[in-house]
Each structure stands twice: as structure tokens, then as C-alpha cells.
Amino acid sequence: MSLSSRPHRHDVLIAVTGLVGGLALWAAGLHTQGGRLFGAHWVALVPLAVTAGLELLRRCRPRTAIVLGTFALLADQFTTGSLATVLMYTDLVYAAVVYGSPAAARRIPVATFLVTVAVTIGFFAWFRDAEALLIGVVTGLVSFAPAITGVSVRNHRDAAETARLRADQTALLAEMDRVQAVTAERSRMARELHDMVAGHLSAIAIHSTAALSIDDPADPATSRDALGVIRENSVEGLAEMRRLIGLLREPGGDDAPAAAPTLASLDVLVGQAGATSAPSGLTVTLDDGREGAGKLPAPVELAAYRIVQESLTNALKHAAPGPVEVRLGRSGNRLTVEVSSVAGDRPDPRAPGSGAGLAGMRERVALLGGTLEAGPVSGDGTALWRVRAVLPVGEGIPGR
């Protein structure tokens, strides 16, 4: 596992310390053995210098360092020896496990264990003396012990790196969830704002246009009625806006305003829509065909209410004079919401549409796993525009 082609500053410090310490031991005449093939004391400086030089490669070239260090250690056995050479070799074994490849980290402990066993058995068979076992112990301390230490350190480092990567991944996922939550909340706020206020503003736009087009001093009642509708919808729109602002400022608590209208107040909505659209020739009726009209999951009730609300707003904007029928039905785990109006042109003023209402309805239905159909249909020889949504109401629906 080569980290750099240049020696690390810590490796340089270890090499210098080992070399200076070995020279000090040599100058003091302290040697590990005697009576070797090369009895001259200065010869022990050669393996010492080689091992110290290999310390510079312990991190950047660990395999090269341990191979050449093994030869240097063997050569040191034919000299009077130096304790510094042995100690630096143990560090080379440790570094080869910690900084080497994963394969080397697995093989070196096994190899040093086998060498320790082989040396122990070999010298015991040669000397036939229990003291020969001490040679095996020393061999294990020089090779196997630092290898096992290196394995332990490497495992801890790998575990720490894995934990760091997992923490980074967790932080990234948390940030992605936060962004998605913010995006979803912004979309929900946009739908709520559109559904709550668009109907009132549409009525204001239509009746204000009608009031401006009236040029008959003999009929002031018509203008007064139009202005009355404008004022009523302005007040209701302002109230809805204040309620939304209250929800954003006060996310919870007993005194917080009601966050989600329910189908229980649908007759009020239909009544308001009928009063607003009557001057345009629209008659709004409600047919609640649910059996028992039991309580539904809150997300389903809110979605159904908003679908009816937006459909009535669209009818006020675009429908030709005639009936606007709102139907509710429930079959098993399915709630059906249907709003139909007469399709066609009318001479009355119209409010401009942005198309966001239909997109919002589709989003609401998709979040609940339901289906939505919106488009022209034929009925009794009359062209109709129908919005039909089917919403699941069983257990485990999304958002419940």
C-alpha cells in the first residue's frame, strides 16, 4: 500500500534514531553475540547501516524493506551483532503489515509464525536441550510478535476508516433527505396556497370584470351585487391566507388553526361555490353517495376536499351555464370523487388559468397511490368536462 514515493518524515526520524543508537552501542562495545564468522566489530555496522536505510522505505516500499531487511538480519548473525539492527527489523515487519498490501497483511503473520515454529523445532532437534527453545522465543519476538501487532493496528485503522466513510454516507443521505423534504414541503405549500386562494381570486377577477363592463346607470343593483361578491371573496381569500400564514408560523399546539379541511365541510364549500357562480348561470349540487360516511384517513379527506375545491374553481373559470355536479362514492377501499360541468364557451368574463390546479390534483392523487381522469366526456347529448379521482382508503396508504 504505497502512500508516497518519498520517505515520510517520521520514517526519517526512525532511521536516524536507529542508526545513531546502533553507533552508540557499537562505540560502547555492546554487542549481542561473539565468536562469529566475521569477528571484527566494524563489520556489524554494515547490517546496521543497511537496516537503517531500509527504515526510509518502511512506509512507501514496505515489501522491499522487509525482504532486504531479512537478508540484513541474517547477515547480522554472522557478525558480533547489534541490538539496534534487531529492533529496527521488528519495526520493518510491523510496517510491512500495516502499510503493505492486504495480501501481505495476511501472509506475513502466517509466514513469521511458521518460521518461528520451524526455528524452534530445528534448534531443539539440533541441541537436544530445552534452552534451545529460547531461540524460538526470540525468533517469535523478533518476527511473529510485530506482525501480530501490525495486524491489530491495521484492523483498527480499517474499522475507523469504514466508520468514517459510513458517517460521511449517512451525512450525505441525511442531506438528500433534507433536500427532498424541503422540496416536498414547498410543493405541498404551493398546492395548499393555490387551492385555498385561487377560487376566491377567480371569483374576484370574473365579477370585477363584469362590474367594469356594466355601463347602465338605470341598473345599479347589478353592479352592487358584483361588488358584493368581490368583497365577500376578498374577505374569505384574506382569511384563508391568514390561516395559511398561521400554519407556517405555528406548526403545532392546541391553539393552532385547523390544518386540513375534511369532507364534513364539503357542503359549505359547495354552498359558497354555488353562491359565487350563480351570476354566471351555474348551479352547484352535491351528491354524497358514501354509505355511512365514516371517517376517512386525513390525507384522503384533504385530497378529496382539495380536488372538489379546485374542480369548482375551474368550473367557475371555464364552464358554460348549466349544472355543476359533485359526487362522492365509496366502494370497499376506494373513494371516488367526481365533479362534472358543462363544457363550452360562454359570453361571461373569464379568469385566466395557469394550469397549476390540474397539476396539483395529479400530485395529490399520485401521493396517495390513486388515479385521476380529467377531460371532456359526453352525457345525455351534452358535452361535459369531468374530473374523476379514485383514492385508496385502506390500511397502509402513502402518507397515513
Provide key terms for this protein.
alpha+beta; Heat Shock Protein 90; 2 domains; 400 residues; 61% helix; single chain
Q: What is the gyration radius calculated from CA atoms? A: 44 Å
Q: Could you estimate the helical fraction of the residues in percent?
A: 55-70%
Provide the structure class: alpha+beta
Strand order of the largest sheet: 1-2-3-5-4
Beta content comes to 5-15%
β-strand number: 5
User: Largest sheet, if any?
Assistant: 5 strands, mixed
| Elements, N to C (H/E) | HHHHHHHHEHEEHEE
Task: Give a verbal description of the structure.
Helix content is 61%, strand content 12%. By secondary structure, the protein is an alpha+beta fold. The chain folds into two domains: 9-172, no CATH class; 262-400, Histidine kinase-like ATPase, C-terminal domain (Heat Shock Protein 90, 2-Layer Sandwich). It has a five-stranded mixed sheet with strand order 1-2-3-5-4. Helix 5 packs antiparallel against helix 6 (133-213), helix 6 (133-213) runs parallel beside helix 9 and helix 8 (266-277) runs parallel beside helix 9. The model is unreliable at 252-258 (pLDDT under 50).
